[in-house]
Structure formats: C-alpha cells, structure tokens
Amino acid sequence: MSEQQWQPQDGGEESGSAAPPPEAQQPPGKKPRNKWKIGCLGCGGLVVIVGIILAIVIPMSINSESKKTYKIHYEVTGTATHAVISYSKWDKDNWSTSQTTVDKLPWTRTETATGLVKGGDLSVTLGAGGGSAKCSVTVNKGTPKTANASGAFASASCNGFGS
C-alpha cells in the first residue's frame, strides 16, 4: 500500500477547520481591529481622568472646609440653685474643655471654632439642692441638642452635636 499525504488545495497549511483564519478574510494590508481593546483603553483613560479630577477637587474642598468658622451656643436653663457645667469643643483640630460652677440659672455661652471637626460636649450636674436643668447646644443656628436632669446630683449631657 502506498501512503498518500493530504495537502490543502489552496496551498496553505492545514488548520483543522473549514473556515479560513481571520487574516484571510480581511483585505490585503489591513489588520483586524479588536474593538474590545479600544473599549478597554477608553475605560482606562476615563478612570485616569476621574482620578486626576478627584485628586484636585477633594483637597481643595477639604482645605476650604478646614478654614470655616462656626458658632457654638451653649445654654443651661432650669430651677437648680447650684450646678457644675462642663463644655468642650474642637477648635483647629484641638480639643478644649472648660468648667464653671453657677448658683443660679440660666447660664449661656457662645464660642467660635474653626476646622474640619465640629462638635464637643455640654454637661450639667446639679448640686445637693436638686431642682431641674435643661442643657442645649446649637451649632450655627442649626437644630439644638438637648437633655434634661432633675433631682439631687442628677446630670444631663448634650453631645454629638456638630457636623
């Protein structure tokens, strides 16, 4: 028996498939374009542009916010005849606390502060004579945070204000 070797009729190499390779389907001199490659490059470029914009805008926004001044209005009202009042705030990224003792209510104080972090605490502790007290804190004329205390040595704390 003689061995015969099969050769493709068009003179090309055997591909194992009836369809010609994609290069054979294109006009001579043109390479096929992979649209997904162009899409990936476009998406990558978009991500880079958005990243650059965020890298510029966010620091500018933070810088401008860190320079804003805000007012904190502390107030304690009620019938107590003796109370210890403590109040604190963030100012220029530093925490400061003050305390005062009063023998008559109402008591008010307005402070100013600057910086990204806004907030602090106001607490009132009544003396042995009891009575009642309400603490209230307002930042930039916003919604006040309030709390109440009544009775001997009772306490009220207004915190979580700011932002």
Write the SSE topology.
Elements: H1 22-25, H2 35-66, E1 69-78, E2 83-91, E3 94-102, E4 107-114, E5 121-126, E6 132-139, E7 145-150, E8 155-159
Antiparallel strand pairs: 1-4, 1-6, 2-3, 2-5, 5-8, 6-7
Could you tell me the mean pLDDT?
A: 78
Total domain count: 2
* Side-by-side strand order of the widest sheet: 4-1-6-7
Give the end-to-end Cα distance, rounded to a whole number of Å: 94 Å
Strand content: 35-45%
Radius of gyration: 38 Å
Query: What is the general shape?
Result: rod-shaped
Query: What is the makeup of the main sheet?
Result: 4 strands, antiparallel
DSSP strand tally: 8
Order of helices and strands: HHEEEEEEEE
In helices, the fraction of residues equals: 10-25%
What does this structure look like?
The chain has 163 residues and is α+β, with helices and mostly antiparallel strands. It is 22% helix and 37% strand. The strands form two sheets. The chain has a four-stranded antiparallel sheet, with no helix packed on it. It has a four-stranded antiparallel sheet with strand order 3-2-5-8, with no helix packed on it. The longest helix has 32 residues, at 35-66.
Relevant terms:
163 residues; alpha+beta; 2 domains; four-stranded antiparallel β-sheet; 2 helices; 8 strands; 37% strand
